[in-house]
């Protein structure tokens, strides 16, 4: 059974940084591409970033390109999302996804 658990959310000031983690279990993590999504209140869930199995290829939404970095540690079955230069519009629930499964999400609020 695929299990994904996000952590690292919280309140951060504009311009600040925060790293999210996604701990995975129940499937062959190192053989799976992984993704981060986010969903703000009243909005549809949107794709933020994608990483391939070895971490050698990544994709970013235009809205986060240059500010967010997706990475993974296959030895720890964990994926990360380093977010810098945060803006109020980055406020959302952040979700990791793999094998058509989702985590429960972690809330990030960017506000002064």
What's the oligomerization state? single chain
Question: Structural class of the helix and strand makeup?
Answer: mainly beta
Tell me, what's the shape? globular
Low-confidence stretches: none
Percent helix range: under 10%
Q: Span from first to last CA?
A: 40 Å
Most strands sheet: 7 strands, mixed
Counted beta strands: 11
- Please compute the radius of gyration using only Cα atoms: 13 Å
Polypeptide structure, described:
- This protein is mostly beta strands and 112 residues long.
- The strands form two sheets. Strands 2, 4, 5, 6, 9, 10 and 11 form a seven-stranded mixed sheet that branches.
- The radius of gyration is 13 Å and the shape is globular.
- It has strands at 3-7, 10-12, 18-25, 34-39, 46-51, 58-60, 68-73, 78-83, 92-98, 101-102, 106-110.
List the helices and strands and how they pair.
Elements: E1 3-7, E2 10-12, E3 18-25, E4 34-39, E5 46-51, E6 58-60, E7 68-73, E8 78-83, E9 92-98, E10 101-102, E11 106-110
Parallel strand pairs: 2-11
Antiparallel strand pairs: 1-3, 3-8, 4-5, 4-9, 5-6, 7-8, 9-10, 9-11
Q: What is the gist of this entry?
A:
By secondary structure, this protein is an all-beta fold.
How would you describe this structure in keywords?
4-stranded antiparallel sheet; single chain; 112 residues
């Amino acid at each position: 059974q695929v299990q994904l658990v996000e952590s690292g959310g919280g309140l951060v000031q504009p311009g600040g940084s925060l790293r999210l983690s996604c701990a995975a279990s129940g499937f062959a993590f190192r053989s799976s591409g992984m993704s981060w999504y986010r969903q703000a209140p009243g909005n549809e869930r949107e794709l933020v970033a994608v990483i391939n199995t070895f971490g050698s290829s990544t994709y970013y939404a235009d809205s986060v390109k240059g500010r967010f970095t997706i990475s993974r540690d296959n030895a720890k079955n964990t994926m990360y999302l380093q977010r810098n230069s945060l803006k109020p519009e980055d406020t959302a629930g952040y979700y990791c996804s793999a094998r058509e499964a989702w985590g429960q999400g972690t809330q990030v609020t960017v506000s002064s």
